[in-house]
Amino acid sequence: MDETERIATSPSSKGRETSEFLMRIVRTLSHSADFEQREKEKARIDKAYKQSDKKLGELVTAHYEDLTKVTQDFSRMSKCINDSRERITKIREDLSSCKTLLHCKRDELRRLWIEGVEHKAMVALLDQVELIKEVPVKLDNFIISKHYLHATDLLVNAVAKLEKPLAGIDALRDLKAELIARNEQLHETLIEELNKQIYAAVPDQSVSLKRSSSYRRGSNLTKQLSDPECKQTKPTELLKPPEMMDLNKEIKEDLNGNPEENPAHFIAVLVEALFVLRKIPDSAERNKKMKDPLGIKSKIEPELSAIVARTSQQVVDSYAQQGESLSSQNQPRFLLELLENVFHQFRNVARMHKIVLRNLQRIIPTPEETVDEVSGVPVRNELLYDMNDVWSKIQAVLELVLREYLDVQTSSRQRAPTSFDEPSTDINSYFSKKKPTKSKKISLFRFDASIHAMSTNSYVDDNMTFDTGNLFHVNLLSEVGLGKHQMVCKPSVNNITAIFMPLEAFIKEVEDAVACQDGTSSLQSFVTEFIQNIFLGQVHATVSSSIAAATKGFDALRHVVDHKTQKDLGVTRPLLTSTVTVDRNIRKLQELMQSLPTYGDQFLNMICNILKEYRDTCNSAYRGIVQIESDEKRVISATWAKDEDISRFLRSLPSWRSLQMSERQDLSKKLCSEEEIRTLNSKEALILISNLSSEAIIPQQEIITDVTQMRTIANVHESLEWFAGRLRQFCELLSARSPNSMNSIELSTREYPPVSDKSLESLKMLVKDFQDLAEICLLLLHLEVRVHCFYFLLPVAKQSNYAGPIDDLDPDSNVLKLNKDLSAMEEMLVQSLQPQKFKYIFESLGFLVSSILMSSIQYLKKINENGIKKMCRNLFAIQQNLTNITMARETDLDHARQYYELLYMNPDDVLSLIVEKGPDYSYTEYVSLFQLYQKSHPHIKPANLDTLLHKLEEVMNKTQNGSST
Fold it and tell me: What pTM value is reported for the model?
């Protein structure tokens, strides 16, 4: 459709087109001169008119009902309009007449209006009086439901109305006095409720007695600690940190909710209510005008004390059985439980105080200033307390608690010297003999045991209980309302070990929260002073007295532990009581290093000093055994054990190295072959023979004749080796914790603290000293048994007669003594030494005995067949005894016996045997054999002996060359 058609079809265009069409018709009919044209136009118009009339009739017929309705509505509306016009005309006429009448009665109307205003004011005043009369009831309802902000607003508004709008109503005078009194009561209620929210809030449900499963009734203590009245309470939602509180947020109170569901919001409501009451300064600090002079700040200490007393009572009720008292038991775990719960509650208290202070800062951002009446100088009104005050009170209360449980007053009177932890400390005084003290005057008689004294003392003991006056100030008791304070354990200095770690963690929290001037809180200063001046000194005195009791006296190193202690320690051989005592004390100090890691170096220095003293004690005892009377001369075995060459050689032998390998449980590797072992044993025997065989007789004082002393040395060896092993493990753990250590050893849950390298090196040197002394003791036993062989066997050849009659065939008396001595040593050492060490003592002893007797052939002046039999009986007797000791046949003694049996043969037969079977002995041994044979047979001339020796040399050379080729 184009634009022309669109315009033509629109309603406006149709009307415009119709009017134009009519105008054109009129112009055509009026201006047309032609009659026919006018007739045509008229016919056309008539036709169009008929069509329109017909169409209109059709439309009317089609829309007859609508048209009828429209017509009727139009008639009705037209009638309403006409009626309205008539009424308006009437109103105009009435208003005009009213205006005329009112103008005539103006004064009377003014009087009526004034009376109406007065009546309205009176009604409003009566309404206010009715509302004021309902204030006490509404106030009680608000207070009961703890909607304190609404109660405060209601009370403040009511008092304000009574003081100004309703001040002249005498009937409300009593109500006014009552509401003013209720104002003060509401203030006290708000303070009480605020303190309740601060100090009696339900702790976090995650904090409970961690060891409740192992203690009696432990599951009930958390609920009791959470609710002082032991009522079931709903867990509170977590408090928002005070730093994240929106200070600009308007404080509102929901009358439909529980105001205590959100403690932080409830505290904000209480502070806002105090602000509305205009009591903020009075509640933040002591107000002298109030009957109850306690504000928030002055309530801190008594409330904290009440928490301690209440928690102590809960611990006692939870753990104490009927009829028993925890205050007489050394159970620091209960003190730890008490402090952990107190710490948690104190943290909640500090958090609540922080919320209070944040709300106070929101309400009073800047403190006010006043002018001093005397000096006229502006003074800053420090009405608001701060968190430093809270933490200071917390520290003060905890210090009082610690003073009582750590028994500070009693301990300070028994304070030991404070220089115990110095490396240069001389603790010989604890082990040295004390000067005899003068005897005290003894009273003739006393009345302590009389019936009257005994009954009086028992009455006093029965009625003696611990009073909180020692823990809290006397004036504080009357304020808190606590008469007694239940002790959860016996006061002792040693209680610090159980509580030190959580106490230090809490002190760290305090120091992080409080900006200390010197970086140390008052509680930390107290703990440090107590440990340094009291605890460490008492520990040192206790340890020193314990060690002194175990090491003093001549027989201190002879006493061994019983079998039960031996089994508990997991050892198979007896240990010295003194060593076990020292080890137990060292273990206690090691536990203290873990319990009090801050003082690790002091405890390590104490350990080193104790080890130095015990090392000196062991060395003195060792010297007392091996030193000949008061001279510097020692027994032969001790001299050899100290000799660097002999000691180094003995430590290089396979038997010694096998001991070290057995300690490491590495026995799969074989050190040497049997031939190499035999060669090394022969070298050992030659060294010993070369040092002793030249002497005629070994003096008795140069050997240890008392086998009990050898047992003591064996006990010292086992004890010190065990002790050194435990100390070595301790060193390894400390080295792993050393700042310079690169080791990644996994330690136990309770680790040792890092210590100084100097102290660690000193400890390692002491461990080495103990290990060296233990090894020297073992070497001494090894050598002493061999020296005893020399002591008894050298006289066998030098003093006995082997050319006697036929009836002298029994073993030599010295051989019998040697067997008896070896059996006695075996009986002693088998109980004191481990099997491998016992084996080391008696191993290769047969080779040494055979070497001694074979080398002693040069001292025999003469021998016959009876003498040969006697010597063989000597060897057989020793062989039987050694076999019983070592449980192995000593083939070396068979070799020696065969050597002496060659004397039955003449030298030529011996030479033939060498040519036939080869040499079984050395050239020197054959020479000594031929020389004794020549001495025993005088018919053989020296020239013949030279010939025999020349033949022997040729045979030996030929045999050796043949075997080499």
Answer: 0.70
Tell me what pLDDT residue 410 has: 67
For 185-207, letters b (16+ CB in 10 Å) and e give: ebbebbbebbbebbbbbbbeeeb
Specify the 3-state DSSP secondary structure of 643.
coil
Please name the helix (run of DSSP H) or strand (run of DSSP E) that holds residue 61, with its range, or none: helix 35-62
Q: Considering only CA atoms, which of 771, 819, 769 is closest in space to residue 792?
A: 819
- The Cα 304–Cα 200 span in angstroms is 10
Residue 207: strand, helix, or coil: coil
Ranges in the chain, pLDDT < 50: 1-9, 202, 204-239, 285-294, 370-371, 373-374, 379-381, 383, 416-483, 665-669, 741-749, 965
Beta bridge partners of 863: 802
Residues 79-117 have pLDDT tens digits of 999 999 999 999 999 998 888 887 887 788 888 888 898
Report the 10 Å Cβ neighbour count for 314.
25
CA 541/CA 520 separation, integer angstroms: 29
Give me 380's structure tokens: 């800053």
Which has the closest alpha carbon to 523: 401, 432, 414, 629? 401
3-state secondary structure 736-784: HHCCCCCCCCCCCCCCCCCCCHHHHHHHHHHHHHHHHHHHHHHHHHHHH
Residue 291: predicted pLDDT: 40
Whole-angstrom Cα distance, residue 501 to residue 491?
19
* Distance, C-alpha 862 to centroid of its chain: 82
**CA–CA separation, 437 and 434 (whole Å):** 8
Both tokens of 757, joined, read 């390298």
Scored b (16 or more CB within 10 A) or e, 543-580 reads bbebbbebbeeeebbbbbbeeeebeeeebebbbbbbbb
Sign of the dihedral defined by the CA atoms of residues 324, 328, 331, 332, in that order: positive
Of 740, 747, 717, 416, the residue nearest 590 (C-alpha): 747
